[in-house]
Every structure is written in C-alpha cells, then in structure tokens.
C-alpha cells in the first residue's frame, strides 16, 4: 500500500483555528488500496481541520460519482455518492484508533494521515445493492434484463372451477355463525 503523501496533513506548523484542504480523488486512490469494485471515480473531498490547544477536529465532506457495475445487469453506470465524516484527534501516550470517532495520537506526532479514513468513508457510502437507474425507470435495454424477464416465474391464476368443493363447505361454516 502506498503512503498517500498528499493525504498527510502536517498540523504542527499550523496556527489555531480552521484550515481548509481540498482533494480530487480518482480511481488510482482506490487501486492503491487494492480495491477494484470501481471502474472509475471522480470525487471532490473537502477537509476542514480545526486546530485547538488540546485537540483537533477533522470534518470531511465528499461529493462525486463512482462508476460501478449494476448487480442485476453488470452494466456500468455512474453512482452518485455523498459522505461526511467527523473525527476528533486527541493527544495521548500512544497511538489508538479503536474508536471510530476519536483518534488518539502520541504527543510527539506532528502530522496525521487521513487516507485510510477517506478510503473507508467513500467505500461505505456506496449502496450495498447497486442498481442501474435505467433498470429502476425501465429505460435500460439489456440482454440480461430480457433473459431475467423470460425466466421470471409466471403468475398462475386459479380458476374457480378448479377449487375443491369441500373448501366451499368449510367457508360456509365460517359465515354461518
């Protein structure tokens, strides 16, 4: 895995207050994590670092699209994604990332790498079931959809003549109270 140097924020030289960082994330970012579920990615990430005397707050907002394959038809399409993550960074004796919302880093640390948090936030923002919008509104024409339609179980309607007459006698018992 790469170090992702562009996602390392050196906070030691920053003044207290808010600092803005902008990133454009493409598919090479996910490939570096050996994640190959996306065909492409175009995501804008805004990171706000609020540095205080005893801790820091990171607020990450991502907006964009990832190109994925539909789970039903395997047709590629652009899935819009939107993700937000707030992370509190505190200083302690040793590194601890057990909590999802609080990161503890050693007092001697002078920078923070947010690449792993960005990766997890973006991967989790994609829906579990990826369905092409054309499938939902009926505009997608695909061989796979045609085959699924063909293989779908047909509704069988029972004729009134096929009903066993003993059922009528039982139904009559219910209504003759």
Features:
Putative ACR; 7 strands; two-stranded antiparallel ribbon; 177 residues; five-stranded mixed β-sheet; alpha+beta; YceD
Characterization of the model:
- This protein has 177 residues and is an alpha+beta fold.
- The chain has one domain.
- It has helices at 27-32, 115-124, 133-137, 143-151, 165-175; strands at residues 8-10, 17-26, 40-51, 55-69, 76-92, 102-106, 111-113.
- The strands form 2 sheets. A 5-stranded mixed beta sheet has the order 2-3-4-5-6. The protein has a two-stranded antiparallel sheet with strand order 1-7.
- This is Putative ACR.
Structure summary:
The chain is 23% helix and 37% strand.
Quaternary status of these chains? single chain
Strand proportion, as a percent range, falls in: 35-45%
Cα(first) to Cα(last) distance is 76 Å
Query: Which regions have little confidence, pLDDT < 50, spanning 5+ residues?
Result: none
Q: Would you count the extended β strands for me?
A: 7
Q: What is the C-alpha radius of gyration, as a whole number of Å? A: 27 Å
User: How many separate structural domains?
Assistant: 1
| Structural class assignment | alpha+beta
Portion in helices? 10-25%
| Count of separate DSSP helical elements | 5
Major pleated sheet: 5 strands, mixed
* Bulk shape: elongated
The whole-number mean of residue pLDDT values reads 84
Q: How are the strands of the biggest sheet laid out side by side?
A: 2-3-4-5-6
Order of H and E elements: EEHEEEEEHHHH
């Amino acid at each position: 895995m790469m170090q992702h140097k562009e996602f390392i924020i050196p906070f030691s030289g920053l003044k207290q207050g808010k600092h803005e960082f902008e990133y454009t994330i493409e598919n090479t970012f996910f490939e570096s994590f050996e994640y190959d579920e996306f065909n492409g990615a175009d995501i804008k990430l805004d990171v706000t670092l609020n540095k205080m005397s005893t801790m820091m707050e990171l607020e990450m907002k991502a907006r964009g699209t990832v190109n994925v394959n539909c789970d039903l038809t395997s047709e590629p399409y652009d899935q819009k994604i939107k993700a937000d993550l707030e992370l509190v960074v505190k200083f302690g004796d040793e590194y601890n990332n057990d909590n999802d919302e609080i990161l503890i880093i050693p007092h001697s640390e002078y920078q923070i790498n947010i690449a792993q948090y960005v990766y997890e936030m973006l991967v989790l923002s994609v829906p579990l079931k990826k369905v092409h919008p054309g499938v939902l509104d009926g505009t997608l024409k695909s061989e796979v959809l045609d085959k699924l339609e063909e293989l779908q179980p047909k509704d069988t309607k029972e004729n009134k003549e096929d009903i066993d007459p003993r059922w009528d006698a039982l139904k009559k018992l219910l209504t003759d109270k």
